[in-house]
Amino acid sequence: METPSTAASQIDSRVESTGLPHAKPVAYIFSEDLVKISSRLPSNRNRSLLVYSLVHAYGLLTTCTGQAPQRFLVVRPRPAGKKELLAYHTHDYLEYAMNQSSDAQNLLEASEFGLEDDCPMFNGIKDYIIQVAGATLTGAAVIRDDISDVAICWDGGRHHAKKARASGFCYVADCILAILFLKRTVPPAHPLKKPRVMYLDLDLHFSDAVSQAFHKPGSTTTAQVLTLSIHHTAPGFFPVSPLAFLPDVDDPVFDPFTLSVPLKAGASTKTFLRIWPIIEHVKDIFQPDFIIVQCGLDGLAGDPMAIFNWSLGGEGSLGWYIHRIVHEWHGKKLLLGGGGYNTPNAARAWTYLTSVAGGIPLSLDADIPEYSGYLRFKPSFTLDVPAGNMQDQNTEEYFQTIEVAYEGILSALRSRMISSTL
After folding, report:
1. Backbone dihedral region of 279: left (phi > 0), alpha (psi from -120 to 50 degrees) or beta?
2. How far apart are CA 319 and CA 120, in angstroms?
3. Residue 228 — φ and ψ, nearest 5°?
4. The overall pTM is greater than 0.90
5. Is 160 one of the annotated active-site residues of the chain?
6. Cα dihedral 361/363/367/371 (nearest 10)
7. 285 has pLDDT over 70
8. Catalytic-role residue among 89, 159, 160, 231
9. CB of 194 within 8 A of CB of 229?
10. What is d(CA 176, CA 343) in angstroms, rounded to the nearest whole number?
11. Looking at residues 95-109, what average pLDDT do you find?
12. Which of residues 67 and 38 earns the better pLDDT score?
């Protein structure tokens, strides 16, 4: 049977570009089958196709001439096997979701498994589940097996899918499967050391399924997994979860390895720059071997959600975050997709982040290349996703509330990390 490790070695040698001296190329997880099935996702029809077509139009993955080392390797994923999916999902959920046609489902059972409303059955759902899970696991295998230090899978990042239930446009828990896969890794240099996995979620919505899966209140041991979600929360805002709010060290359910930074409406680069030191402190204390970053785009200006006002460029921007994480943090990184419902802006953003990860950032003023998808990018026909005019409701008083809370949270996290070395 083929494993994620062998799948990770299925690299299309024709696809290469320039690269940093002595640096491993960034692995870009892609296949036509993956793009086709991901483009059927009811909430994001044809998004995957537009993303890849724009990456291709800019020539980021094309073969270069001359002596420059390569920046990217295209890694062809393979579908996840049933055993791999069962590492987290229940047998009943997989049996139902993967063996029903979209026009002949038992409505009671469909409701039980969350396959209704925002997660309807659709033609190709079985292939979608195995392809997306397989793609994210291939990305995890690439960094585990030292083929690359950075892997990109924009079709992954389905952070709402539960163990036995679809939720929030998410049918498969690929983030959780990747975390479980990486935490089982045995470091060759330190065979007795258990690897640490940090999951950082930048989506507008709280990473409820991922955070809940690794939440262990009352534990006194050091966890291998730390989750940190930066998101919006408000009464009734999806997903409703007690873990979405600012953690309280005195709360019985407090776990220093399950963290949240909830932001108010209008969050801009200024707000994201202000909270960056918290993210850095968490990372420095936890010292992860692997970092999974869910790069949801529904917090960008111009998204139909219209709640945040984040942008691609400048200090504190999404591009700035990814540059710092990829090029300045120690550890291996897996970049995943997520939300993002303005399809042309999703293509712009993930194309730009691909170039940032590869160390060849495109100019945000760059014109969209004239290709078959060109007209989708009107009226600006440029790469940038600039901020809008929304007012940032994250006040100085609120920042201070977050920072005071995190003084206690970071102290608790530090204590747990120290206790593990005694």
Report:
1. alpha
2. 33
3. -135, 115
4. yes
5. yes
6. 0
7. yes
8. 160
9. no
10. 25
11. 76
12. 38
Residues 241 and 146: their CA atoms lie apart, in Å, by 37
User: What tokens does 275 get?
Assistant: 């909270």
Q: What is the pLDDT of residues 157-204, one digit of tens each?
A: 999 999 999 999 999 999 999 999 999 987 666 666 899 999 999 999
Helix, strand, coil distribution of the chain in percent, nearest 5: 35, 15, 50
Q: State the first-to-last Cα distance of the chain, in angstroms, to the nearest integer.
A: 42
Q: For residue range 61-79, list pLDDT tens digits in order.
A: 975 545 566 899 999 999 9
Q: Which residues pair with 151 in a beta bridge?
A: 27, 334
Nearest to 100 by CA among 128, 81, 80, 77: 128
User: Helix, strand, or coil here: 284?
Assistant: helix
Q: Which residue has the tokens 């139909």?
A: 304
At 315, list the tokens: 């200090």
Please calculate the CA angle 215-216-220 and round it to the nearest 5 degrees: 145
Closest CA to 298 of 226, 374, 202: 202
DSSP string, 27-55: EEE--HHHHHHHTT-GGGTTHHHHHHHHH
